[in-house]
Design goal:
This protein is of the alpha/beta class. It contains 18 helices and 21 strands.
């Protein structure tokens, strides 16, 4: 029987070249929808034109001899955005192509299905290596991926109708919270262990779309979490910035005009072994060697020069990642597992804006206090609550996080014995005890920033009695 390839696509990337090779190298006959036909006609390839609505029946009929289907469709959100009514949008969705994909996947014992242009070269290599045939393993891999894509299409149409099709639109759906939520991330990488050595773990979704590994061992569970938090943290700063993080916790951070001087401060931390260094510029070979000699676990930077990669090649114990898509806020929602389900909320994308702060005390902040408080606010929102950041200039002096009360965080700072002269303090929760303010002023803290919502009158009175600068922020300061 003559081998036949059915092409029903909306994305024409690589289709003409694929069709040409299928015909010339492997003797396929080609059937194509109108869009694909226009592309392959330029190659002088003869083909039989088919309508998308009839394509699924051709695949299901064994006598038609279709052994390869190339199919892809426009996502529902993009298509629906182009039409004025939901009825018109329903008619324009690529239902015929999706039904063809399903038919091909159900016929996996005899039909190979290519839904992604990235698979075309792999399909041609498969044919060359196996006498013009597709192995069952190859067909099965593509079929499972295609069925997932088809199910996502159905779910997307349901969500579209939920928002657009009812007489009274669902306000929750319009806000991004549909009546059902679907998680269909592909597995990106298996991890050797989970949080503990006896646990299993894997990375799902597009994590590696944002980061490229340049050297070192495969990421472990802790590193994946730390890298994600580090990217969000460093994305707060426009000026040169660097930080050290371990197990997702901030050890130290600094911002300034020169990344070289900032790195000197950050890498001067008393213990940064097994931590991750994250920065928003090029670190240079000298500082890279310093980080490596201090036994950092990994480095996250926008990129690495050839000279820096040479240094890393001699120290494969250090994992180096470069940022592919920047270090900003990619996610619009954050999701946390709970008993029997998940808890979803909008990610806080609001920028820290000192123009919205309220000066509660009679004492006024100095010009340099504003920058220090701004830096502290950006750091503390990425810490575990209840957190307290002590800042000097734009350098993190101390960060007490994960405490059950701000009083405990302050007690830990005081007991540590660190110098507090000419520093500022930033809390991420409002329940600060007024008596703490007097002690802060006594030890050298100049200004305090905290969220509004506590006993503001008592705090204001305490600040005025000791001459401390006190500011309140109306928005919450929790980022993650």
């Amino acid at each position: 029987m003559v081998k036949r390839a059915l092409l029903v696509v909306k994305d024409l990337s690589g289709v003409a070249v694929l069709a040409e090779r299928l015909v010339n190298e492997f003797g396929f006959e080609v059937l194509a929808n109108e869009i694909a036909g226009e592309a392959i006609r330029s190659k002088g390839i003869e083909f039989q034109q088919v309508k998308c609505e009839a394509a699924a029946a051709l695949v299901s009929d064994k006598e038609q001899g279709v052994s390869l289907v190339v199919a892809n469709f426009i996502d529902v959100e993009s298509a629906g955005r182009s039409f004025m009514s939901w009825k018109a949008a329903l008619g324009a969705f690529d239902r015929g192509i999706v039904e063809t994909i399903r038919a091909a996947a159900w016929a996996v014992e005899r039909v190979a299905l290519l839904g992604n242009p990235n698979d075309y070269e792999a399909a041609l290599a498969e044919l060359r290596e196996h006498d013009g045939k597709f192995r069952q393993t190859f067909r099965m891999q593509r079929a499972t991926a295609a069925l997932r894509a088809a199910s996502e299409f159905d779910f997307a149409v349901a969500q579209y109708l939920e928002v657009q099709g009812a007489d009274a639109p669902d306000m929750g759906a319009l806000s991004g919270y549909s009546k059902a939520m679907r998680f269909a991330w592909p597995r990106a990488q298996l991890l050797d262990t989970g949080e503990n050595s006896h646990q299993l773990a894997a990375v799902y979704g597009g994590f590696f779309d944002h980061f490229e590994q340049k050297s070192g061992a495969k990421l472990d569970y802790s590193s994946v979490l730390t890298v994600s938090k580090a990217a969000y943290l460093i994305g707060e700063f426009e000026k040169p910035a660097a930080a050290l993080m371990r197990n997702g916790k901030i050890l130290t951070a600094s911002v300034g005009d020169s990344l070289d001087s900032i790195l000197s401060k950050v890498l001067g931390h008393e213990d940064f072994a097994d931590s991750w260094l994250v920065l928003n510029g090029s670190m240079g070979c000298e500082k890279l060697r310093l980080a490596v000699s201090g036994k950092v676990a990994g480095i996250l930077a926008p990129d690495f020069s050839d000279e820096e990669l040479a240094v890393l090649s001699d120290n494969m114990s250090v994992t180096a990642l470069s940022s592919i898509s920047g270090m900003g806020y990619e996610a619009l929602q954050e999701i946390r597992s709970i008993a029997g389900g998940v808890l979803v909320q909008d990610r806080d994308r609001a920028a820290i804006n000192p123009m919205e702060w309220t000066i509660l005390s009679l004492a006024q902040p100095l010009v340099e206090d504003w920058e220090s408080l701004m830096f502290g606010a950006k750091v503390v929102r990425h810490a575990d609550s209840a957190a307290l950041a002590i800042v000097s200039g734009q350098n993190l002096v101390s960060l007490e996080a994960g405490r059950y009360a701000p009083k405990v965080a302050w007690n830990s700072v005081e007991e540590s014995g660190i110098g507090l002269a000419n520093t500022v303090a930033v809390f991420d929760v409002p329940e600060v005890e007024p008596r703490c303010l007097a002690r802060m002023k006594q030890l050298g803290v100049r200004a305090v920033l905290l969220p509004l919502g506590g006993d503001e009158a008592a705090l204001q009175s305490a600040a005025n009695e000791c001459g401390l600068v006190l500011l309140g922020i109306s928005k919450g300061m929790r980022r993650l």
